[in-house]
Amino acid sequence: MALSIAEVLEEVGKAKTREEKRDVLKNNDSWALKALLQQNFHPDAKWLIPPGRPPYQESTTSADTSLMFEAKKLDYYTDPSPHRLPNVKRESMFISLLERLSPDESKILIDIKDQKLSYKGLTYKLVKDTWPDLLPEQEEKSTTSVMEEEEPKPEVENV
Prior knowledge:
Blueprint: H1 5-14, H2 18-27, H3 31-41, E1 46-47, H4 67-70, E2 78-79, H5 87-100, H6 103-113, H7 124-130, H8 146-149
Antiparallel strand pairs: 1-2
Helix pairs in contact: 1-2, 2-7, 3-6, 5-6
């Protein structure tokens, strides 16, 4: 039986080495897992849902659905969306989805929406190394300041 998205991410967090974390991701490879990680880490990913935790009631019974199944409907909530929905309708649908998911998966989806998914060792680099075509290359951030890059100006003597 396949692990849920929450279970996969927990296993990644428990894995001791970077290689073990990659193995957990590879062994649980699914379209849904990759789509969710892409939404979390891709710099161009944009959601049409306001940031933060929406007002919803966590499910107290067994979940009616899972992120594994619902991930294929992410395009209702992301930009660009092929679905022309009023924002109120889109946000209402999102709240309904959160209420059908388990509390763990609801929290994961909110974190992904805000690009704040946090599990020990789950990084952009890990996802990029596991699936090279999933994310764009990250530009190296320069640690040299602009002042250090400029040529020093020769001192002019006043004569």
